[in-house]
Amino acid sequence: MRKRHPSGADLLALGLAAALAGCAPAPDDAGITPEGHLRLGDIEFAPCSLSTVGATAVEAQCAAFAVPEDHAAPDGRRIELAIALLPARAQAEPDPVVMIAGGPGQSALESYPQVAQAFSDVRRNRHVLLVDARGTGGSHPLRCEEEDGANAFGPDEASPEAMRAFTERCRDALSEDTDLRHYATMDHVRDLELVRQALRVPQLNLVGISYGTRVAQQYAKVFREPTRTVVLDGVAPNSMVLGQEHARNLERALDVQFERCRAEPACVEHLGDPSRQLSAVRARLEAGELEPVQYRHPVSGEWLEDRPAFFHLATLLRMFSYQPAAAATLPLLLHEASEDRYAPMMAQSRMLMDSVGGQIAHGMQLSVICTEDVADMAPDPDDAGSLLGNSMVELFQAQCAAWPTAPRAEGFRDPLTGDVPVLAISGEYDPVTPARYGEEVIRHLPRGRHLVAPGQGHNVIGAGCMPKLFAQFVERADAEGIDARCLDRLAAAPPFAGNYGWEP
Q1: Do residues 387 and 333 lie in contact, with contact meaning Cβ atoms separated by under 8 Å?
Q2: CATH number of the domain encompassing residue 420
Q3: Residues of the chain with pLDDT under 70
Q4: Domain end: 358, 381, 400, which one?
Q5: Cβ(367)–Cβ(403) below 8 Å
Q6: Which of 341, 358, 375 is the last residue of a domain?
Q7: pLDDT at 352
Q8: What is the predicted pLDDT for the residue at 321?
């Protein structure tokens, strides 16, 4: 018989078993099953690969875990959650790190490869646990799509009436095997606690990203003892109404980015004042009746044709402002549009809409926002002239009028308080969760600290030395003891001064 050499999956399993053995509270809590699978507590894992477009695939261990759809009816219908474990590279501490994805509507398993490098340091001696929130990814996903595959983030601007009709069709289709009232934040919080108990680990280190910061704060409020540390990246305070302040936050972020162009002589000389060009291009697009434009899809290369419209511009400005490297190209794109060259704007806008539509489970997003936020939404007259105006509020109000909800948890808007160690991190130019949100959350936490990454945008856990600072915080459970001076080396990319990029 030929000797069988161990495969990569075998070596990963052996390494993880050894690491798990170092943290298991009892000998039978961790190990290898007769089938060669890994077991931690009551959950059995098998080798898998996590992948997403534009990122390197990551080897992991995956499992499915059943939970009640309605936590108040534990004997009722059950749904399966998709879970992944990224093993520590050495003997593991007993408290894993849990990454909670954003959106709402993003899959943790699909999002992780994009930020995997940020978790490299913390994985030296801790496992990273991923749980797709119910309604996302592999956890009974709630995707809203038409028969032709079109989704809520399609290439056509939708009126509130059209979005309500779309939502009603989605509601009716999903309701055949789903109670849509049970897919909001507190349902995910209770799922996480059931997973922790099944794994038989004493505590969790929570890492919330964007909307995931809301989940992390709510978990730490309800389950204080099982919470060892909390990292909040792109902080959404519990007081924040999702969607209500997006318009004004974007205006402030664009003002800052455009001022950076005006401060660079080459940018203004070659491209003009971006604020004035935005006003001119916006007026032209809102007037309508422009000729159709042919352009190539930036990913597929397919030739497409659309009539330039204002929502193409609004999508581009909103999504590009998330990251300063992308925002640096906005003066160039506005200049091109001001010269009646709309193809770059159309191509980038289409790519963004396709990408967002593929990542977000719209039904889960509605279950969250309609349960927790829409009652606090109201059109703001001060936003009427902004780029987004009150469109986001009006669209959510229209959709939520047709979406089933359960009552919001009592005290949901109350801040996280107490002695839990919390590290909040923000980007200086974040257009969605600006740094002032981080300050609001930390104000209530005596063991909390807020770090602002210079020149950065939304989600900064992977920026510069932040992965090392994050790992040090988790190791020590002490935010104040971190030396964060290395963040001073971060800076935003300079604004483009032409098609060749920025001035040398």
Answers
A1: no
A2: 3.40.50.1820
A3: 1-30, 147-157, 355-357, 502-504
A4: 358
A5: yes
A6: 358
A7: 79
A8: 83
